[in-house]
Amino acid sequence: MLYSLFQMIDEDELFNPEYVEVDRVLSESRFPPPEDAPEEPEAVYFLCKWRQLPYEDATWELEPDVDKTSIAKYFKYKNPPAKVKVSDENTIPVKCDELTHNNVIPTPSLIAVRFL
Predict the structure, then answer these.
(1) The domain spanning residue 56 has which CATH number?
(2) Distances from the Cα of 21 to the Cαs of 36, 62, 65, 70, 95, in angstroms?
């Protein structure tokens, strides 16, 4: 008895479940409420790249439909914390003997550079 390929494969195996998992959020877009209904909240869409799919298949999804951890990661990298300025007390002075003569590299160093 001949079986077709589709009779032997379970229907659940035809669809990869990773296609519906957000790999990362790429961008966001906010739309104000319509003028005729100002009491509605603004619509927030996120551009989602899906697991196991290329970037060209990324789609815009409403905020409630996107995983909260993916949104949190997006905002973490979109708005990184300010750089911490290191005070001069914590820095270690570095002596550079090669640039002490009016910022001109001495001859032995030039020879080494030419060799490379």
Answers:
(1) 2.40.50.40
(2) 35, 15, 11, 10, 53
